[in-house]
Amino acid sequence: MTLQDNDQSADRVLIFDTTLRDGEQCPGATMTFEEKIEVAECLDEMGVDIIEAGFPIASEGDFEAVSEVARRVKNATVAGLSRANPADIDRAGAAVAHAARPRIHTFISTSPVHMKWKLQKEPSEVLEMVSRSVAQARNLVDDVEWSAEDGTRTEHDFLCACVDAAIKAGATTINIPDTVGYTVPEEYFALFAMLRNRVPDADKAVFSVHCHNDLGMAVANTLAGLNAGARQVECTINGIGERAGNAALEEIVMALKTRPDVLPFSTGIDTKMLTRASKLVSAATSFPVQYNKAIVGRNAFAHESGIHQDGMLKHTQTYEIMTPESVGVSKTSLVMGKHSGRNAFRSKLQDLGYDLGENAFQDAFNRFKALADRKKHVYDEDIEALVDENIATASDRVKVVALTVIAGTMGPQSATLTLDMDGKHQTVQATGNGPVDATFNAIHALIPHEVTLSLYDVHAVTEGTDAQAEVSVRLEDKNGQLVTGRAADPDTLVASAKAYLAALNKLSAREERLHAQAAG
Predict the structure, then answer these.
(1) I need a surface site. Which of 55, 62, 406, 498 has the fewest CB within 10 A?
(2) Same domain, 229 and 330
(3) Which string of b and e fits 466-498 if b means at least 16 CB within 10 Å?
(4) Is the domain of 431 the same as that of 382?
(5) Is 16 a residue whose pLDDT tops 80?
(6) Domain presence at residue 301
(7) Do 402 and 416 belong to one domain?
(8) Separation between Cα atoms, residue 78 and residue 98, nearest integer Å
(9) Residue 296 lies in a domain
(10) For residue 20, pLDDT beyond 90
(11) What is the Cα–Cα distance from 1 to 79, expressed in whole angstroms?
């Protein structure tokens, strides 16, 4: 599908979201089947053009998730990733078969270092595999994307030959990724300009950018690629992804919207859904969004400096180049407390971008009232934390019922913990080297398991001594698989127990899926 075939102007940029594939490859960011579907439906509603739903050959679970996304998505193209081998391509084709607009995205490494050490193949073999894989994919679907893995470290003559071969074999989109985040904007611009000038049939395909953030230049490189003629950008919500992550969708889209004078391009994204999508992905992956994250960070529209506050009171454009409303952040704020009713709470949730079913709403409201009884001021961030935690743990089989901890200088510290385990309450007392260690030992006593605690992180959701603590716990199992659990509570130890259990529940759910696949 070229831009012309899609009846789009030359300035229309296609948004290719790979949160469900490249984003999920971020260590510890694995999503459940249900979470993937929810994220895909949000991306579709937001106006994403192409959703890369996964890597179908990777596992039966990935195949099923891509297949279900293909069935559910109403507007976007659904892509499945495949390596340049027949089994991968057939599997990807089967996974996207039910999509209204299916795409197979096939790739192979083209840089000297990748061909020598990863593929252990000669350039001539790789070139032949490009033609063969694209032709096979094109026999299955009309829309085929081909990627040159490690394209920015590929010799130009060979890259031109590969791109030419891919287009001749039927590729409709050509992606030149900066796989290791190595390039700089000037180089990336020159690379696309060179390809579009030297490849004879370059006008028959859409060129695509895919940038990683290892040097912090993913978005800058993406914009350079657009200025050089690329018309598809590959990106993720919150910039999650391998190592330092991918180019962030929200940053790219708002850069184009805010600076049309130097970036005269348009997208089909409903920008008012950006904050909602960011929170959804953060809750699903248990990856917090850094406070100073551009566009969707907690401080993106916050002003504490007296000089800045004075300027904002006189005219918002003194220190804001976009409005909070344009990205889905409410400019005004309802003051929430223990006297707030259901309607006020529902309105606040809507302002914050949440659309909960009645059962989920009632549970969130009950948790809000309990929090308001314990906390003098309930901030937007407090509400977001309790709703996100509830969404993330709604299907958990093990939950905290009660926790009492004895701590102090006399030691040893002890924890008495009661858990709801599949509907049954079980209680244990344990000691440890500190209250957190005692709490985690109590969990281990009730749920024997073999994991390594690779991260324990605590920060305050808001200011004040009564602030909720938000805890992140990352566990590594004996196979080296990582999972992250997050939880918030005014009591740091309760939040710690909930976060640890959230991670354990994810590990348990993963093991059940693997056993089911093996049995099937």
Answers:
(1) 406
(2) no
(3) ebbbbbbbbbbeeeebbbbbbbbbbebbbbbbb
(4) no
(5) yes
(6) no
(7) yes
(8) 9
(9) no
(10) yes
(11) 13
411 and 370 share one domain: no
Amino acid, single-letter form, for residue 162: C
- Helix boundaries (H) for 375-474: 380-393, 435-446
What are the pLDDT digits (tens) for 231-278? 999 999 999 999 999 999 999 999 999 999 999 999 999 999 999 999
Last residue of a domain, one of 333, 368, 392: 392
362 Cβ neighbours under 8 A, 6+ residues apart: none
Structure tokens at 159: 């890259």
Instruction: Examine the domain organization and report whether 320 and 419 are in the same domain.
Output: no
DSSP class per residue in 236-275: BGGG--STT-B-BHHHHHHHHHH-TTT---B----GGGHH
- Tell me the CA distances in angstroms from 165 to 72, 82, 96, 285, one per residue in order: 34, 18, 24, 38
Residue 328 belongs to a domain: yes
pTM of the full predicted structure? 0.73
Could you identify the residue written with the tokens 């195949």?
A: 63
Instruction: Tell me if 81 sits within 8 A of 107, measured CB to CB.
Output: yes
- Summary mean pLDDT of the chain: 88
Number of domains in the chain: 3
Residue 328 zone, left/alpha/beta (φ > 0; ψ -120 to 50; rest)? left
Q: Which of 392, 412, 443 is the last residue of a domain?
A: 392
